[in-house]
Structure formats: structure tokens, C-alpha cells
């Protein structure tokens, strides 16, 4: 909003990155998902508010890519730090086995879905910035397009059932 006057004068465009987590909230990524939902919703609002001034707004929704954000060592250090500072009550509730299994599951998930083709994100950015007719939203990466977008269209009850079924193979807290 700080540059709204300049955008109006230039009839520019706004291009921002949210995440596929703005479409599907993944367990363990609550704060991240909330922030991405917020970015996406804000862009939806300003897309409508700025359209009369000839300004377009575009959102990139990449899936998981091998960037510093999901660096395995960084994530492992964050998980270890969270466990270290967790209250004893929480540690007892979840247990050491849950903690170790959750670390392993996180790495397995990221190794399964994260792409090293960061150029896909750069290409989408370039298209959104330079195209005569850019899309409002860009889903980027096979996981975004083939997994998370179709999943996001399912009824909530079915999504919950799928998460519960997947949960059969995930770590369980010690005190359930």
C-alpha cells in the first residue's frame, strides 16, 4: 500500500509469493500456513480494489522446493531446539519416540516431494512480471499441481479422512 500511488501512475502489477500451503494446511506447519493464507487472501482483496486503476495482482503458489527454507539441517536444528525448550509435560505427553519418528517423517516427506528445479519458480515470476496476459495464480511444481491443488478441492470431510488415514502411518504421541 506504501507504493499504491506509484502503481496507479504506472498502471503496474503486483507479483507476490504465497505457497501451496495457502491452499492446504499441513500438520506441523500451522504458523507458516496461516501466514501464507493471509498473503493469498490479502492479494485477492487488493486484486479487486486495484483493478479499477489498471493494476493487476498475481500470486505464485509454489510447492516444496529445495531452498534454504526447507534445508534439512536447518529444519532438524529447529525441531531439536523446539524439543529442547518444550515443557516437561509436553515431552511426557508426546514421548521421545514420537519426537524421533516425527523428525524422520519430516525428512522423508521433504525428500519425497521437494524439487530441485527452482528455475520453475523463477520462470513463473518472469511470466507474471513480463506477460501481456499473466495469470492471477501460478501453481508451481509437480506436488503443487498434481497433489495439493486437487486435494484442496475435496470436501473438508474427505480431506480430514485422508489426513486421518495417512496418520495411521505417522508417529503417535505417547499419551493418546
TrEMBL record:
GO MF assignments: oxidoreductase activity
Gene expressing this chain: dhs-2
Protein name: 17-beta-hydroxysteroid dehydrogenase type 6
Keyword Membrane carried by entry: no
Transmembrane regions: none
Pfam family, one: adh_short
Record's keyword terms, sorted: Oxidoreductase
UniProt superkingdom: Eukaryota
PANTHER family membership: 17-BETA-HYDROXYSTEROID DEHYDROGENASE TYPE 6, SHORT-CHAIN DEHYDROGENASE/REDUCTASE FAMILY 9C
Amino acid at each position: 500500500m506504501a507504493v499504491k500511488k506509484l502503481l496507479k501512475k504506472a498502471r503496474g502489477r503486483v507479483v507476490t509469493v504465497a505457497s501451496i500451503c495457502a491452499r492446504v494446511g499441513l500438520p506441523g506447519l500451522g504458523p507458516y500456513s496461516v501466514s501464507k493464507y493471509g498473503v493469498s487472501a490479502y492479494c485477492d482483496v487488493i486484486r479487486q480494489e486495484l483493478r479499477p486503476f489498471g493494476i493487476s495482482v498475481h500470486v505464485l503458489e509454489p510447492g516444496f522446493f529445495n531452498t534454504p527454507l526447507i534445508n534439512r539441517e536447518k529444519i532438524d536444528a529447529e525441531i531439536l531446539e523446539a524439543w529442547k525448550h518444550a515443557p516437561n509435560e509436553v515431552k511426557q505427553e508426546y514421548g521421545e519416540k514420537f519426537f524421533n519418528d516425527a523428525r524422520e517423517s519430516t525428512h522423508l516427506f521433504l525428500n519425497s516431494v521437494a524439487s530441485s528445479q527452482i528455475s520453475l519458480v523463477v520462470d513463473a515470476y518472469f511470466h507474471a512480471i513480463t506477460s501481456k496476459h499473466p495469470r492471477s495464480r501460478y501453481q508451481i511444481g509437480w506436488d503443487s499441481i498434481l497433489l495439493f491443488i486437487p486435494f484442496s478441492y475435496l470436501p473438508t470431510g474427505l480431506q480430514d479422512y485422508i489426513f486421518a488415514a495417512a496418520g495411521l502411518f505417522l508417529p503417535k504421541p505417547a499419551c493418546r
